[in-house]
Amino acid sequence: MNIWLILIWILISALYAYLKLRTSYWEVKGVSQLKTGIWGNIRRITTMHHTDLWQEVYDEFKDKVKIAGTYWYTRPVAVILDLDLVKTILIKDFNKFTDRFPQHNTHDVLSQHLFSADSKIWKGLRTKLTPTFTSGKMKFMFPTLVEVSQKYVTALDAELKAKPDQCLEMYDWNGRFTTDVIGSVIFGIETNSIRNPNAEFRIIGQKVFGSEKPNIKLSMAKRVYMKYLRYFGAKRFAPDVEEFFLRIVNDTVLERERRNIRRNDFIDILIELKNQKDENGQSLLSLELVAAQLFVFFVAGFETSSSNMSYGLYELAKNPDKQDILRQEILDVLEKHNNQLTYEGMLEMSYLDQVISETLRLYPALSFLQRICMEDYHVPDMDIVLEKGTPVAIPVKAIHYDPEIYENPTAFIPERFHPSEVQQRHPQSFLGFGDGPRNCIGLRFGRMQAKVGLIALLSKYRFSVSSKTLDKMHISEHSFVMVPGKGVWLKVEKI
């Protein structure tokens, strides 16, 4: 027999044995796992949205065990199914689960942001950036949001006059609104996305969230094997996206320093950090790290709120009785405040809060929370040790759709989030903004932005289903964040 054929056979056999061993990891540890092939459960992820993988694990094992196993390629992932254990991991034992899945390297500028930063730089960044989102800062930003929302309504009025069928794709419109908001409050820049859907900021945002349909298999491989791929210069984001944010830093940050401009905003805080030195005389933030923070606050700030607004309008259009209740609350509060939207008036709109929370329950931005086990961890009350470096996944959407927690879970019922109802549920039964020290730093801003947008829209327009409205929302298969895959088409009538 040809020696090369023998060598090839040996290599294939060795690879097969290795893959079988890797995908038996959880069975060997005595942890229940989904039936899997030699490439783990990646087939499921590439033939359906990854959200459905977590749902499959949850449905299979939730009533049997607290932890189940699955695989991303050859990477074992522990899926947490018990809410008390979720609380332990996110809060009580947070110091043992500080990091998220590895997604960055020193050569990938934009991946070194607060969301994916490892524990070495995360804590310092979080501490320094938290003051950006205090109640005082929110109140300071509020007039800018109202001003942008007024421009939004003006642009919609003009669009409706040119639309005989009054049918609009609201996901795009809401994205243009939130892009202009983030441009103003974060960058101090007029991005003009409402007037121009092809504005540069808008195009960049669409690139990040899947408009170019990235290869999900390649994206998964990058997440699983980033610690190896980083040595080959692999990056998560396209070069033009990286170049855009580096240019913004040079055009905005350096210009402010040169002219000594202060706006008391997010960029000013980043400039202060850039100019502060640590004990070794090094800057707390390099220009590249400044660019990374601007990137994550831009893309997270515009996308999560625009999606939440769009999903909310979709459900309100399908549930006109709920829409009428919310509109009446909005109009009553506005009348109380001389028909002016004030920060205090917004806070009085309790049903609006419930609508936003219920929308996040049905359509959480992240379908799962991710953590990395920082040391060997003995799971409380179980004969299981999670090895250091083990990825941990908390299936947010599956928890949100559990009928034992939320009766009739697919129905849109904002009243679930009345304070008296919330108190009766487990505190980790709602994870729309994550939980624990590493929850969403911008949750107050995100809720405020969505509220201002919905108030502006619902006080002026009535939304209903049209011939283009999907019976069931389609979630994009090309994004790890849950975004509408086929738009949100609604009939919009001026009141």
Q: Rg, please?
A: 24 Å
Overall residue-averaged pLDDT value:
86
Query: Helical content, roughly?
Result: 40-55%
Global shape: globular
Fraction in beta strands = 5-15%
Show unreliable segments. Answer: none
Mind explaining what this structure looks like?
- The protein is globular, with a radius of gyration of 24 Å.
- The chain has 495 residues and is α+β, with helices and mostly antiparallel strands.
- The chain contains 19 helices and nine strands.
Layout of helices and strands, plus pairs?
Blueprint: H1 3-22, H2 25-28, H3 42-47, H4 50-61, E1 67-72, E2 75-80, H5 83-92, H6 119-129, H7 135-161, E3 167-169, H8 170-187, H9 200-208, H10 216-229, H11 239-259, H12 266-275, H13 287-318, H14 320-336, H15 343-347, H16 350-362, E4 369-372, E5 377-378, E6 385-386, E7 391-394, H17 396-400, H18 419-422, H19 443-458, E8 461-464, E9 489-494
Parallel strand pairs: 2-7
Antiparallel strand pairs: 1-2, 3-9, 4-7, 5-6, 8-9
Helix pairs in contact: 7-8, 7-19, 8-13, 11-13, 12-13, 13-16, 13-19, 14-16
